Amino acid sequence: MTNVIWHEHPVGKSIRSFMKKQRPCLLWFTGLSGSGKSTIAGAVESKLAERLQHTTLLDGDNVRHGLCGDLAFSKEDRNENIRRVGEVANLMVESGLIVLTAFISPFKENRDIVRGTLKEGEFIEVYIDTPISICEQRDPKGLYKKARAGEIKDFTGIGSPYQPPEHPEITINNYDISVEDAANKVIAYLENKGYLKPDKGFLKATLA
């Protein structure tokens, strides 16, 4: 990009993370509509809040009320939707936050692009694996019914494909598990991998 040069500032991710006493990361919840992404992500954030961790949650529908309010649901617009969310999430990780996102994000390529913008270990793919038959039974927004009636075109799982993650960091089979247990599974991963406390590198961070 012509005449645009990255400016390094004295306060960076390490210092911000040290101040928050945590390792920043992006928990990327993906799955079909009705799979339970937003519900589980919200439960995880509540548990993190109880532990005084610093978080933020980006939800698919909420983002389309503002940041991505100008986008429709063509493949091109969906790609742009995920690109924008990925860039915003990256900035939030840079600020030292544990970021949670809940998006169908049906295309593997888009998810891999977001992963590639973060450092190793900062992108945690959480696959909410719920059979489409169960998602349709739930259908909390009535979208499957509309898609089956032809009122919504290119609806994921009906008129447009969903590409499941091949090697997600966390998989939750959300059809025989409670929201509490599903959230605890994510918390256990963060605990075991050391995200809920700063590593030795962060402890050495200074303003010098």
Notable characteristics:
208 residues, alpha/beta, Rossmann fold, 5-stranded parallel β-sheet, 9 helices, 5 strands, 42% helix, 13% strand
Which helices and strands, and how do they pair?
Blueprint: H1 13-20, E1 25-30, H2 37-50, E2 55-59, H3 60-63, H4 75-94, E3 98-102, H5 108-117, E4 123-129, H6 132-138, H7 143-148, E5 170-173, H8 179-192, H9 200-203
Parallel strand pairs: 1-3, 1-4, 2-3, 4-5
Helix pairs in contact: 2-8, 4-5
Range of strand content:
5-15%
Structural class: alpha/beta
Look up the CATH topology: Rossmann fold
Q: Output the number of helix runs.
A: 9
Structure description:
With 208 residues, the protein is an alpha/beta fold. It has a single domain, classed as P-loop containing nucleotide triphosphate hydrolases (Rossmann fold, 3-Layer(aba) Sandwich). The two termini are 31 Å apart.
What would a concise description of this structure say?
The chain has 208 residues and is of the alpha/beta class.
